[in-house]
Amino acid sequence: MTRLASSTLTMVPPEARTPCYDRAQPCGVLHLGTGAFHRAHQATYFDALLSAGHNGWMICGASLRSPAVSRQMNPQDGLFTVLIRDGGEEQVEIVGSVAEVMVAPENPSALVSALAHSDVALVTLTVTEKGYCLDPATGALNLDDEGVAGDIADIASPQTAPGFLVAGLAARKAAGIAPFTVLSCDNLPDNGKRTREAVLTLARAVDPALATWIEDEVAFPCSMVDRIVPATTEEDLDNFESATGLRDEALVKTEPFTQWVVEDDFCNRRPPLDEVGVQMTNDVASWELVKLRLLNGAHSALAYLGGLAGHHYVHQAMAAPGFSRLVEALWDEAEATLKPIDGFDAKNYRAQLAQRFTNSALEHRTHQIAMDGSQKIPQRWLNTIRAYREADRGVPKALVMALAGWMHWQAGKNDAGETHIVDDPLAARTAAALREAAGDRMREVANLLGISAIFGEALPADNAFVQHLTEAYCSIGETSAADAVATFAVP
Ligand code: CS2
Do the strands 122-125 and 27-32 form a parallel or antiparallel pair, or are they unpaired? Predict the structure, then answer.
């Protein structure tokens, strides 16, 4: 087996784009969470930047959990393939912007030293929603989280993303090195603000003077990221190997669409990302809401209802009876809660989303999107429902149906009675809520709504909402998710 690496780059098919720049240059970026999304998104923008001759913007990657990514990438000198798929078409790019990947748990202080290196001007993060250790309902740092408590007890050996940021910034302050900019690239509303709050809360708990310095000196711009990146399968790796003779364990597959909107607020050198298609703006929040409520909101609805109905992939769910009608209704509800943005055309955006969701070449698994729902649904659905209710528009039926789907998903069984794992940090809580209700559907709904870390206090007290939700939940229970969606009547 021949691995993709600098020495085997010549074996890559001639039509593939390969790095045309000297890769032996400083890492201006340190990235936390070098998973598939980072590789198909931010790493491709930095690859374009380096290709355009902007030196010093290689990425030093870090995995905060498993060593798997380093085993995939380090033997390949950080190189990896991006397959861009659209229906029957495929484009191949070899990306060279990642220099190496460190494994934080193996040597936390090595990562802290890397964060303190003066070449690093920017720290980017894709650690998923749960990686910030926030309370999903309030967005504040969860001080009861084990990792956070560990960081407070021993910040020299951090475990969490906020912990590494605090330790890295502390090391820079101590060495008299200017701080890096912290750029969150996760699907959270106000991701920069939330990251800042989390870092400040943690810093206050370990060293108040450091917290003041961070408050005064460090920029935490918000950003909106968008590209659909399904998890790579063994089959993808095997197919690439049989076509090229090269094994690429770090290969990622994605769609042609990509978008990155970044708030123009940097405290250290700013990479000229605007030259490679990044939208620099001062109104990221509006873009973020559009993306979370329309794209991610619909994605999660397709994941739970589609997953319950037995659809493995998003494009299959989109083609099943009633699903695209439900998605359109969900978009109507979500759109009603958004304020207009200059240069944003909701009709085109929705049409483009519908097309992206039907890209069958992506094979985007509903179960992948269903992961970590407790961390996702507050910003994807619940804030939308609240805004809709506050504007006196009645009860948003499609969002409520989606939420009823999420509730059924927690039982770990689909319409056909096949079991699935509820992959979620709060899975034990949702399971206990269902168990306690002993099969009484009204109580199941009430118990799940009682998990305030997800639902807060106001929504569970909203009677009209609870009544509609209970009806939707019962209708799925009495028939099936497939039927409930097929017969979903657009109000
Ligand atoms: C998806 C996202 O897995 C999920 O929750 O909704 O990863 C989605 O594909 C991206 O946000 C698209 O930009």
Answer: parallel
